[in-house]
Amino acid sequence: MINRRHFVALGLAAASLATGPALAAGGWPTEKPIMLVVPFPPGGGVDQMARLIVPFVQKHLPGANIVIENRPGAGSQIGMEYGFAAAPDGYTLIGVTSPAMMTIPFDRPVRYKVDEFTYIANVMDDPGAIAVKASSDIKDLPDLIARLKASPESVSIGHTGVGGDDHLTTLELQQAAGVAFNVIPFNGSAPVNTALQGGHIDVSALNVSEFVQPVADGTVRVLAQAGDARSASLPDVPTFREGGYAFTVGAQRGVVAPPGLPADIQAKLVAAFKAAMEDPEFKETAKKLNAPIHGLYGDEYRTSVLGIDARLNEMWKTNPWKNQ
Q1: Global pTM value
Q2: Residue of 23 and 7 predicted with greater confidence
Q3: CA 66 – CA 61 distance, rounded (Å)
Q4: Judging by beta carbons within 10 Å of its beta carbon (0-12, 13-18, 19+), is residue 213 exposed, middle or buried?
Q5: Pairwise CA distance, residues 61 & 57, whole Å
């Protein structure tokens, strides 16, 4: 699990950079602070991503003063709508996560369009995974599937909320394996962990980074993870693809801008984020935090997000998950 104490220090580092030497005179990005809107409370995955990357983006974007502003509410809808409607002048950025940004519109009307954001950079890609308590008699993924085939819904699984990536990991596994869990949604990862350790659920569905510390503590066993390849954080854990289930699910966390951002400003932001993520100091910091770094930039990032969006639309049409 990513160590949040380190992110406090990173936040202070970002603040010190923001109040450093006077900005140089001239145009963007020196005229005023750049606001990075995080549509979640402090301490969450997108907030951690923002506080990790911001000091290094400032380092590679001379004159920039990036200020993180948390605008949580409605599962990130409030902050995303605020950012989407902001002036496309390079002084507002939005921290986003998929699939959440795509699944909210399935549930209710929103005032943003996923395909109209200006895409800057994906910073993290945290694969989904499923785990059992260390003392569980479920041996591995084949054993789990065999139990479910023999007795549908006999195994309970907890995830962090309907429409989130952990829920989608569960849905993809059910569809790919032709099985049915007793699915129990929770409000966040902490209640899922508590329920697993308390024996109230049999399996938990979270992200790989959230299992790193429990695995080190010997309290859980991870059965499989939903990345295209094995995670460097848990290299002994096989992928679902290795088990014959061809799907990939994870939480992408990145940065976008309002629609209509001038191409020259987008190019400068993309270059600054890319330089930040290739910075040796950034890589070392991310490694210490077990942060699942995965850089995608500009059109490449947009193509990835829209590909996920298309897959989610396909899933929703054939098997709406609102009440699952």
Answers
A1: 0.78
A2: 7
A3: 10
A4: middle
A5: 6
- At 18, which amino acid appears? A
The pair of structure tokens assigned to 36 is 């990075």
Residue 167 CA to residue 320 CA, distance in Å, equals: 12
Give dist(CA 80, CA 67) in Å, integer. 16
What mean pLDDT value characterizes the chain? 89
Strands (E), the chain: 34-38, 66-70, 92-98, 118-133, 156-159, 182-185, 203-207, 220-225, 250-257, 293-297
- 58 by DSSP, 3-state: which? helix
- Is there a contact between 243 and 186 (Cβ–Cβ < 8 Å)? no
Spatial distance between the Cα atoms of 3 and 151, rounded to a whole number of angstroms: 39
The torsion angles phi and psi of 47, rounded to 5 degrees, stand at -65, -45
Report which residue type is found at 70. N
With b for 16 or more beta-carbon neighbours within 10 A and e for fewer, the 91-107 pattern comes to bbbbbbbbbbbbbbbbe
Tens digits of per-residue pLDDT, 122-166? 999 999 999 999 999 999 999 999 999 999 999 999 998 777 889
- Which residues lie across from 128 on neighbouring strands? 207
